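In this section we walk through a basic example: taking a raw amino acid sequence and producing a predicted 3D structure, encoded as discrete structure tokens. The instruction is simple. Fold the sequence below.
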Amino acid sequence: MSAEQIPYVAFLRAVNVGGRKVEMARLRAELDELGLGPVRTYIASGNVFFSTARTDRARLRDEVEQRLAEAFGFEVPTALYTLGEVEQAYAAAPFGGMERAEHERFSLLFTTGELDPAVLPQAGKRGDWEVAGVHGATAYVLFRVVDGKGPANPVPLLEKAFGVRATGRFHHTVEKIIAAARKD
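The resulting token sequence is shown next.
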């Protein structure tokens, strides 16, 4: 009798930006070789779907990160969630029903560990971003254009504040990621 397969979503940080090229076919092949196949990807920004019976998430994340670093020659921080956890994080988003102003964007920050709400509030000095809340290992970030300038990248500051590694996806993109992950 085989163990139950758990569907995972791996959010890879900073792939296919700033010279950090990761071809999706090669990415899928590398993770297939770890026994995580069949591996699927959604858009070329580092959203990976696979199923495995392995339950030691920290070890699995370490194996994925090590394999990708060896294969591509640079570190690829990875936030690893079950599909159910991604669905829960999306459903818990405080801006799920909010009307977004033209100068605003809603984002989910997927991280490598549980987030302590006591670290809040967190916000940019220009009012260009703020953490609207946390749920488990996910932070909800509201971005704003201020005085015609886009928001600064809060990820390094939030990683330091929460003691985790992180990568963000826009709220509307997470909805598409969930739909793509559910397809067989």
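Looking at the output, two observations stand out. The first strand starts at residue 6 and ends at 12. Residues 6-85 form a domain with the Alpha-Beta Plaits fold (CATH 3.30.70.1280). In the next section we compare this with other chains.
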